[in-house]
Amino acid sequence: xxxxxLSASISGLATIGVDVEVNVASRGLPAFEVVGLPSKTVDxxxxxxxxxxxxxxxxxxxxxxxxxxxPGDVPKQGSFYDLPIAVGILAAVIQFKIPKNSLFFxxxxxxxxLRHTKGALLLALFAKEKGLxxxxxxxxxxNEAAVIEGVDVYPIDSLNQLIGYFLExxxxxxxxxxxxxxxxxxxxxxxxxxxxLGQEQAKRAMEIAAAGGHNLFMCGSPGSGKTMLARALQGxxxxxxxxxxxxxxxxxxxxxxIPPEGSLIKIRxxxxxxxxxxxxxLIGGGSRPQPGEVSLAHRGILFLDEFxxxxxxxxxxxxxxxxxxxxxxxxxxxxxxYPCEFMLIASANPCPCGYLHHPKKPxxxxxxxxxxxxxxxxxxxxxxxxxxxxxxxxxxxEFSGNEQLKTNLETSEQIQKRVVLARKLQQxxxxxxxxxxxxxxxxxxxxxxxxxxxEVKQLLRRAGVAFQLSARSxxxxxxxxxxxxxxxxxxxxxxxxxxxxxQYRPKAQIKDL
Amino acid sequence: xxxxxxxxxxxxxxxxxxxxxxxxxxxxNYRTRRAEIDLIALYKxxxxxxxxxxxxxxxxGIPEESLNRKKRIxxxxxxxxxxxRKRWQKAYRIDAICIVLDxxxxxxxxxxxxxxxx
Lengths: 513, 118
Fold this sequence. Notes:
The complex is a heterodimer of chains A (513) and B (118).
Chain A: E1 2-11, E2 14-25, E3 31-35, H1 40-55, E4 64-70, H2 82-95, E5 102-104, E6 107-108, E7 114-115, H3 120-129, E8 134-138, H4 142-145, E9 152-156, H5 159-167, H6 177-182, H7 200-212, E10 216-220, H8 226-236, H9 242-254, E11 270-271, H10 279-283, E12 284-285, E13 290-291, H11 293-296, E14 301-304, H12 312-316, H13 319-324, E15 326-330, E16 335-339, E17 343-348, H14 367-375, H15 379-383, E18 387-391, H16 396-399, H17 403-407, H18 412-429, H19 443-449, H20 454-467, H21 471-488, H22 495-503, H23 507-512
Chain B: H1 3-20, E1 24-31, E2 36-43, E3 46-55, H2 69-86, E4 92-101, E5 107-113
Parallel strand pairs in B: 3-4
Antiparallel strand pairs in B: 1-2, 2-3, 4-5
């Protein structure tokens, strides 16, 4: 008897439909074969399905079972074909009808229960696109799949429960988004901006970066608070908004990073890989390409501490993704495209010993060493950074015992309020565009939304000559000044906004002015 | 009754079945140098090698289970050795007959699987 069960195959963030055809023959030697380019994980599902059915107290048919995963020329990956294969066999043996327009997804445990499986959100999206009405998923994936409206999500605990549903019509309550929304975990960032003493300019730069999604480069002596600042940045960023949430959750679903019972991701991701990271780890890759850190930092922060210590090839690989907001990974078996619209926050010491420009400690480096150290980060990379800021060493005497100064510091919450307002302005501005923040603006957007007065244009032209700004930096300056204006709630970019944005050029350039 | 006797009992049941179905039995327990072929029969001009598997209890696995890939390759090898010796140049086929007996050595299940090495 031939049974067809619908499922899908995931490649990157894309899905294509897969028909799981199960034939339980009445003639021939007993066998259990899976065809249709199964990977090792899919092939192993034979053993899981067999044992799960036996342990659900159902006799496994000693007959010739051939499972075909169609289309036959697309490689199949993942452990989620367990459920469709098991359902196909059971439907053929116990003779029940599988309702039309139903999608099955999930990995089986040997005892017949269902395990948490990655990719539930992508499957639910696929179901919606194809107009399928029902999707059967493991219970721990139900919250994730229920995010997609218009598809009934049936949370399944075990094979026996599913059989009860098909044979005796024992109802299964569908998962609803409204129930999911109640449980939003609020993650407290490690540091509050109020805990960081001094560094007013750096904090201001953080605020601008957060408001406009700009890249930021911090340079300063050891212990001056660069890492603390970066970690506190998470606390002044606004929550993810509608479309962004889905985009981030899709990547995390594909990477299998959504925990059991997890749902939409609402907090901006913060990724801080160690500098021993490989190119594939940062950009993404593998023979079946997985998302890298840049994609996991989508709509959030990619913090690269000790920027100069990263291998040069790894940093250079950042060029295109940082600029375009997506990365296309091509391997012989698969080509995928992952979005990676991240804020790059980098930090480095000014020289190998770390004390160049330090007010008290002398620098022990030779000129040659300093030059060699600086050369590790190439011009094209630095050119892609909107904001350069110095984080000088803090004089402890100035702060110890000065309680008044400590209480006057702004908290992350206060800063976040301003950031949220600035982001709201951007949202309204880009309502009809496919960008969210100022930093994502293309040249056409800049022409449309950043109209500069004569005075501002003149200032920018003068700066352009003095700093020898590249065309890219020139536009970046406009974007940053747009954000500064937004923070003030100003409609137009005026000279003071532009002047402030010029403060965030690399220090070497400012000195030349 | 020991295992060998159960096997012989199964072979007798299979032989009777084949004869009743107009298979002409050519050899029984034919020995090659390495192995033994349970039954060889001729049916409609096709030479048929039959492997008989008998079990008294299905709790420790069904007879079909023991006909794994390795065993099937072995059966093909034996058949080839036979046709080489007898210079048989026409079609041949390998079948399996699986027999399950109950505790009183009565027939519980009988399956004739045709052409198992196809």
